[in-house]
Structure formats: C-alpha cells, structure tokens
Amino acid sequence: MSPATRAPHSGGPALELLVHGVGGATPQDMLGDPRTVRISGDEKAAVYRRTDDAEAEGSPGAHRDRPIPEAYCWSNLTSGNGARALWLLLLPFMVVNLAHWMRPRARGMRRTTRLYGALVRLVALSLTVLLTAAACEVALDLLAWQCAGSAECSGDRSWLGFMSAAQGGWWSQPGRRLALASVVPAALVALLWYLSNRTWSAYESQRPPVGDAADDQGEEEDAEDAEDGGRAASGEADCGAADDAAQPAPVVRPALGRPGFWYGRRLVARLRAAHTAAGFLTVAAGVAGAAARHDRAAQDVLLKTCGVLLEGALVVGGTAVLVVVCRRGRSERRIDAGLDRAAVRCLPGAALALLALSLLYASWSRPGWASSATLPGEVTFRVIVLAQGALVVALAVAARLLHRRARPPRTVLHGLGGPAVAMLACALGGVMTGGVAQRVADWIDGPGTPGMDGEGSIPGPPVLLSWQASVIPVLLVVLLIPAMLLVVRTWLVARRLAPQVEAEYFDGAPGEGRRDAVRTRRIAGTRARAALTDVAPLMVGVVSGATLLLGAGALGGSWLSGEVPGRSFGERGLAESAAETAQALGSWLVGFGFILFVTMGRRAYRDASARRTIGILWDVGTFWPRAAHPFAPPCYAERAVPDLTWRVCTWTARTGGRLVISGHSQGSVLAAAAVWQLPPATRRRVALLTYGSPLERLYGRWFPAYFGPKALLELSSEVDCWRNLWRRTDPIGGPMLIAGRQGRAGDGCEDPTDVDRGALKDPVVYGRSERHPLPEPVLGHSDYQADPVFAKERAALLDRLTPAVPRQAQGSSGRSSA
C-alpha cells in the first residue's frame, strides 16, 4: 500500500504548521478562512488558527481525515511600521554581513577560517568609518569650513550667518565652527548605536529552548571542529528544560543546530561598541586634526603639545578598536549571553571622552586662523578606498584557499561569492556617501560648479568622489554586454524548451486539447526566465570585478592628477571631453541614486504596500545574524527560529501528536533552521514539507558552509521524513539534489533516498478540459497548495509519522511542557 493511500494513524492529533515566504501573508490567506484567532505570540510574530480550530486537540474526531492547520506569520518582523523604511540607509551594512556567511566550508584550515572572519569584520568597520567620514565631509568640510569661510557662500544663507568668517562673531573661528558642526556626524553615530541596541532587544534577544554547553570558542573554531568530527557538546536539552541545563552526553551538531547559533549577544555587543567608538574617533580626528595642523605651524608650544598628545590618543583608540574587531568571532556552542564589559563599556566611553577633548581643543581661541581650500578629506577617502580594496583582495585569497580544500559542488564563483558581495557592499557605500557629498555641494554652491575654477564659490568635495562618479557610466556600459547576452540566451533557451513543453503535456495525455503556439511560448519563456537565477552569480562576479578594477583606476587617477577628470589631459580634445562627459553623467547618476533611495524610504514610510515591497529585501538579506556589522538591520530569524522551535517542542510534548512543518520559499529556510534546533526525540516525530524552497538553489550555493550538500544530507537523515516540491517555472525554488541518504531502520519512509518529488506541472493542465474549463495560470513561485499533489504529499508525510505518548502520561518522571 502506498503512503498516500495507507490508513491514517488513530493515535494522537496531527498538526500542519504553515510558514509563509517572502513578502508576508495574512493568517486569513494562509488558513483560507476570514475568522482566525491568535494562539500565541504578539503583533510582530504569532501563531494563528481558524476560530473553529482553536481547541481542536480536544475534539480529535473533527480532524480525523486532515491535520489541524496552524499558521506562523512573521512578516511584521521585516515590513511592519514605517520606521523600517529607514533601514534602506543601512543597505551596505546588510550586504557586507552576508559576506561573512558565504565562507566555504573547509577542513584542517582553522587559521584561514579565522582570517576570513576577521577580514570581513574589517571591511564592515571600514564602511562605518566611510559613512562617518562622509557625514564629516558634509558637515565639517562643505558647510563649516568651506561655505562658512566664504563670504559669497555664507552670504546667501542667513542660517549660516552666525558662523560666517565675514561676521567676526564668536563662532566665526574655524575651530569653533568645526566643533559645532561635529554635532551632526556624532549624532549620526549615536543614532546608529541606539538603533542597533534597540533592535537587538526587540528582535534578537529570544533564547532557543536548548541548554548551554560548557565550552566557549569562536565561530571559526566551532566550524573547524565540526568539520573534523570534534566532540564539543551541543547543549541540546528537552523542550521544557531550563536554559542553563547542560546535557552530559556530547553530540556533534551541524552549525545551524548549535545552541548559540541564533543567540550571539556577546559578539553583537562587542562589535557595536567597537563601531560606535570608531565613529566617534573619526569625528574627533576630523575636528582635532585640522586644529593640530594649524598649531604645528604656529608658535604656541602649549597648543602644539596638546595637539600631538591628542592625535596620539586617537591613534591608540583606533588601535584598540582594531584589536577588539579582530580578536574573535562568534561563539555558537552555547548561548552566548555574556558581555565583554571592558570593551562594551569602556571603549565607546573613552572614544566619546576623546571627542569631547577634541571639541574643547579645537574651540580654543586662535585669532589668526582662517579657513582656506579644503579639509584633508581627500587623503581620508583615498585611504579608506585603498584599505577596502586591499581587504577585498585578501578576502578573495582566503576564500579561494578554503574553497580549494573543500571543493563543494555548485558553489557560486568557485568560492569567491563572499569577496564579491563584500565588494558590492563597498561600492554601495561609496555611491551613497559620494551622492550625499556631491548633492550637498551642488545645493550650497547654487548655480556654480564646485571644484571648477571660476565657477563655484567653494572648492567642493574631494576629487576622488568625482573620479568615482566618472567610472559609473563605464561600469554600466560594461554590464550592458553580459545583460544583452543573457537576453539572447534566454530567448534561445525558450525556443529550445518549446518542444519539450509540448511533449510533456501531450505525450501520453490525449485529453490536453489542441496545441497552442502562444501558450507554449508563454510556458517555455517562463521556464527560461526562471533559469536566470542560476546565472545570477556570473553577473555578481562581473559587477564586483569591474567595480574593483574601475575603483582602482579612479583612485589612481585622483591620486596622480589631483584634479577632476578631464582637467589633467592638457589641451582640450576628445579624451578631455569624454572624461568631462563621464564625470557629469556619473555625478548625475550618483545624485539620482541618492534621491531614489530617499524617495523610496519616504514612500515606504507612508505607504504600507511599498513598505511590504521593501520588506521583501529584508526577508532575503536579514535572515543571518549580525556577525560582521552591528549596525545592519536586525536578524528576524533570531526571533522566528526560536518561535518555531518552541512551538514544535511544546505542542509535540503536550499532545504526543504528529506534526508537519510546511514551509514555502523563505519559510522553508526558517523551517529547516528550526528543525536543526529541535532535540533528537522531537525531531524524530516531525516531518518537513518544503515547496518553492531556495534551500539548495540559493542558500546551498551561496552559503555552502551552512546549507551545502553535506548539511542538507544530514538534515534529511535527522527528520522522520522530508518531501520537497518544486516547479521548473519557479525562479526561486528548486530541487534539493540530495543523494546518498541511508534510511534508518523502521523509520517508515518508503524511499528515504528521494527528498525531491518530480517537478510539478505548471500550469496544471495545458488547455481547457472538463475539470478545468478556463485556462489555468502559470503560477511560478506561488500557490503550491493549489496543486492536487500538495495534499497527497502532506497526507503521505503524516501517515509515515508515528505518534508518541503524551508527556503528561509518562508519570512523574516526565516533565510537562507549556
């Protein structure tokens, strides 16, 4: 008798826990009933049931032939109130955080693994410094130094009159103007610290229902020991156990199954302190550096000595920040609830004290000091860009060494996915900061052109920003070639697939009606476009490589010429005209990109539908914990995964029933992560049903250390049964491609080696029929539950599960679970 037709078990209720995907879903849509009731949770994430099923466990006869449906809705974690629209400004931080998790999984290379993590954290630190330096460029250099120091510029703006050098007031001295303007970048750093601290408390402070292990090693050591078959305790406990109870039997667990994977308070707090200190030190260096340079040329020995001591203290503070960032990675084998109090409390406080001393030092009266030209922001931005390029290259070398040892199949860019994404994060940071600086310079200079002799009233932003803007049109031209090739390739693939589509529907199926060329082309075209997901890594590699080379060219051009593009070619000619055109077009594109960001954020703040669209971006990008950048948007999985784990544990312990976790799209990733966190006894009573799942197609390729073939094989062998549904028209989901699984004796699975079902037909039928009188749509990534196969596979999974004895019936030795 097949699993689909076998009689259902009579003992214990059955529950289907539905987990939606990206973009969110309402409980009414998930449950197919307008009347729903919240079972557990809050306004951010909660479990819902139909009103009629609220007490379904007490009436098992009502669900004898079907499971109790239950929906876990988590969409408000990423697309809830309007304040989340501001997370768009944190996009570079989110992208660099992804690079941390793209490390290849290698064996026997502990030092290289540690180096990879440290390099990603340094790239993340450089982005914080870049953002703060851009704020300093706008507030300190363009406004307080250049515009307030120019009678023409400040005369047109009454709100700058009290700082104008022509007025001769108390604030007219350059040092005092800089001290006052430093409030803006310092407030920005304080805001980032506040958001990071607040979002941690609101989203990521949920402990999983497992115990702590005794050891305390970094993430790199954890991953390495797991590869080598080490014997670190997993800390798994029964669902109702206290958080601090440690299990005596050591068990090796996959990375996502470790107790502390979804709870990293120590690392986030330490990185938050280091990045906050780095921001304050950057502001202090911008203020104190200008005053110290003036004092070195003056005759006041006391001020000169104070300047030297203050600059030395800033160097010491910067060194301390680097040590804290590079010191250690994540600790995952236990719930990392401790704090490095010396770093968390002392480092930001010391940096803030140095900032206060810098403001006091710069505000000291210097009657003969006048602002001219620009602050040395040019050197600052060049150093930052050079450091970012060197770090990305070093990261690529480390990633390549790890990949050569591991060689996981289907890994994107041969292990260079992490460095490529880190390069994109640096590029995003450069575009955003450069766009802000150039737009502000154009605004305060009116009709003039900053940086052009005789045209503007101020010198303008650093020359490097103009060079970076000039390479953007070149980058777009470079990207146009592979984009056109992909268009042609998709068209050719669609033509090649057309006969296969007709053969699939008409061979052996005479009831499908007549062939329709338009219908065939539409289905084939949808399949061809869905396959573009598999070539997306190539585009990322092209963009990252071109960005690195063009960025190096922009850095070299600005360093050698010291002028905006086109001014260093001598007599005016074709090269000069082309360079000036590229610079003007690039500056316009940078400004347009910045305005687009602001517009999208403003629209998302007011419009719930736009906020939900932006929430899709966070659904994909903020699944991973903040391991590299503490100012990235919060990780919703650190709330969602414990929620699911607690629900599965408590329900199975209380009822002893059978449970299927049914996850669609990103919900399947959350479901898999929750299953990894379950204790072994609970895991054996749970089945997994995934559909439209990116577990292998996206996560397995981009994050091989956590969702690679070995990890998915382990997952399939640990759950009682797992079935995966997919379509060829789906651009997100795909097969798991798991081979070599050996079924457990008596586990009830008819075919334990096959997680994937054959590709579902999409559309279900080709033409009109008696059962489908109207044309069926091409569903792609949506509405998997509308396929009749879905109900059959769910019934088969529930039939394979064996209900357990409820914990309450186990006598005094059992512990009841809430």
Automatic annotation (TrEMBL):
Residues 205-246 are annotated as: Disordered. Residues 231-246 have a biased composition (Low complexity). Signal peptide: none annotated. The keyword Acetylation does not apply. The chain crosses the membrane at residues 85-103, 115-135, 178-195, 273-290, 302-325, 346-364, 379-399, 411-432, 467-488, 535-561, 581-601. Residues 213-227 have a biased composition (Acidic residues). InterPro entries: AB_hydrolase_fold. Keywords: Membrane, Transmembrane, Transmembrane helix. It comes from the Bacteria. This is Integral membrane protein. It comes from Streptomyces xantholiticus.
